[in-house]
Design a protein that fits this description.
The structure is a homodimer of 343-residue chains.
Chain A lengths: L3 H6 L20 H7 L4 H6 L1 H15 L4 E2 L6 H5 L5 E3 L2 E3 L7 H6 L5 H4 L1 H14 L5 E6 L1 H10 L7 H9 L1 H25 L3 E6 L7 H7 L1 H9 L8 E5 L6 H5 L5 E3 L6 H8 L4 E6 L8 H18 L3 E5 L9 H12 L6
Parallel strand pairs in A: 1-4, 4-5, 5-6, 6-7, 7-8, 8-9
Antiparallel strand pairs in A: 2-3
Helix pairs in contact in A: 4-8, 8-11, 9-10, 9-11, 10-11, 11-13, 15-16, 16-17
């Protein structure tokens, strides 16, 4: 059975526009909060039964066209040897990378041994889904992970990480290469376990100007994608604040480029060219509008997507916000499913 | 005497490219740190002698072509009635705006009585400068101030503020109008006290998509600019992550549009048109490069500025970072001053 979501990723015709939402397994869902009352965020990531349970929730509650594994991009640096604290005020590495010997001490994880909870969760989700909708696996992009690993915590512009990479380009490439090797093993294990699509999150890609993106991010994403053993699973690359970087994202070898809410989809199409599908890009804050206003915003995104042509997966321009009313999310999914995309 | 900085703002010919740096009076300077050892950030803003002293430091140390008053955009919300805490980990309003009655309680400040420390500092700086270089006054844009006032603290995307404004558009406009009225009085008082140019910082403009920017930010900036009593003082509008918003910024009535490091200046020129000067846009992290590499980056900005034409004020794409080596900042100023812009 051809899944609407997969078909759209490869720019093949679909009956209805497919939709899923970044962070769709999250705090806005009462069912998720009930699980989280019992365990920490990181424990939830590391308990395959529970991770699988929350992964399925939005499929049941909202009727989205894809599931995305509940996990976090920072479990990879943890498996590479860094202590990770995931708290509600944001992730922290208490001992961020400072020098070459810190980088040398990192190791490329043995996925089944050190990240086996992820592949096990994938197997359980696939079984529970029984092919109802496809399952998306994911990872962070090398630059985004490096930025967290150097900065130690979230930041507006990751200036410390940028300064460190700029001051020592050899160190930068040693770190980014090692992370890329870790991601290749990690994503290939996700594919082997049953992931039917992959998304690479370059959440902090927009902190880099275009010339630095071409040095520190895009080539490593391309290297990861080229090293995947795929059999028909599409790859989505998504970043935030990437208006000027979209052409580079499209050139990584991704099938789909995710677009944040800052740039209209028809503009984005002009920058990525015709060879990729687009994913996005409703502003997550739109789900706080009165419903009639929300509907206008959604219709506008669909209209621009039709104008942009060549494949569209509806999504938000960034993760769904924790205080989003569930009714608004449901209304969004219904409206998108009423739309037949222009050919 | 015509100042190089003012001439460039109005797109008139200059002998050398003028330069100043956002946050040029700041922690990277040992002279600044010596003053800050004695007083808090907010005390420094409110003590005209000390504010004037640190305002002058970068003119003496770096030889920049303009001074910018040492202050903070959040002193205006404080004067409107909100408690403000300015600490090193970022500003906070312990009691953020929650509803209509919170907005109604805000008042438009009597500038000489409630923000007189700002106008007094301007008078002292002007006297001390003796027309060596012009003095820039500034404020935050209405949306950026509203975002802080609702969110209560800094945030990646100011989602809470966006959601609040979207959920209640009448409240949004009541708040933004009141802030605009406060800013008109504030900036006119700065001009009367001797400010020779003004910069409006829409630091969080990029959190809004283009359609929301057209509703919640650009019209209020335009209203403020139109209400100024100017006699030859240029207005600069600057925002961060504004690649898709540049045309709107140029249409506010500003003489100069500040550009962050994410978009090359020749691209930016295509979006703003020929009727404004450009300010920017070296990535602040470039000042951590080895000097030879830094020089290449600076040369590249100058080259793109020449290609963009029609007026260029060199600046960073955002504020100078606190750990920047002073030697790198000095080398930057020297290199820019060696450049004669193309006509």
């Amino acid at each position: 059975m051809a899944h609407r979501f997969i078909e759209a990723c490869f720019r093949r015709p679909v009956d209805r526009t497919p939709i899923w939402l970044m962070r769709q397994a999250g705090r806005y869902l009462p069912q998720y909060r009930a699980v989280r009352e019992k365990v920490s965020f990181l424990q939830l990531c590391k308990t395959p039964d529970l991770a699988a349970e929350v992964t399925l929730q939005p499929v049941d509650v909202l009727g989205v066209d894809a599931a995305i594994l509940f996990s976090d991009i920072l479990v990879v640096p943890e498996a590479m040897g860094m202590e990770l604290i995931l708290e509600d005020q944001g992730p922290q590495f208490p001992q961020p990378l400072k020098n070459r010997s810190d980088v040398d001490r990192l190791h490329v994880p043995d996925v089944e041994r050190e990240l086996g909870y992820v592949t096990e969760a994938i197997r359980r989700v696939r079984k529970a889904l029984a092919n109802r909708v496809p399952l998306i696996g994911f990872c962070g992009a090398p630059w985004t992970l490096a930025a967290y690993m150097i900065e130690g915590r979230t930041s507006r512009g990751f200036e410390k990480a940028k300064a460190a990479l700029m001051a020592d380009e050899r160190l930068a490439h040693a770190l980014l290469s090692k992370i890329s090797d870790a991601l290749v093993g990690y994503l290939n294990a996700q594919l082997a376990a049953g992931a039917q699509a992959l998304q690479i999150f370059d959440s902090w890609g927009g902190a880099l100007g275009p010339e630095d993106y071409a040095r520190f991010s895009a080539p490593y994403i391309a290297r990861v994608i080229q090293s995947l053993h795929r059999e028909g699973q599409p790859v989505i690359v998504f970043g935030v604040e990437t208006g000027e970087l979209l052409a580079q994202l499209a050139a990584t070898g991704a099938d789909v480029v995710g677009v944040d809410w800052r740039i209209p989809l028809d503009e984005a199409r002009g920058r990525v060219g015709p060879a990729v599908a687009l994913q996005g890009n409703l502003d997550p804050a739109s789900l706080f509008l009165p419903l009639a206003e929300q509907r206008k915003r959604v219709a506008r995104v669909l209209e621009l997507a039709d104008r942009a042509g060549a494949g569209h997966v509806f999504n938000l321009g960034h993760g769904i916000l924790p205080t989003t009313p569930v009714e608004n999310a449901k209304a969004l999914v219904e409206q998108v499913h009423a739309h037949t995309p222009a050919r």
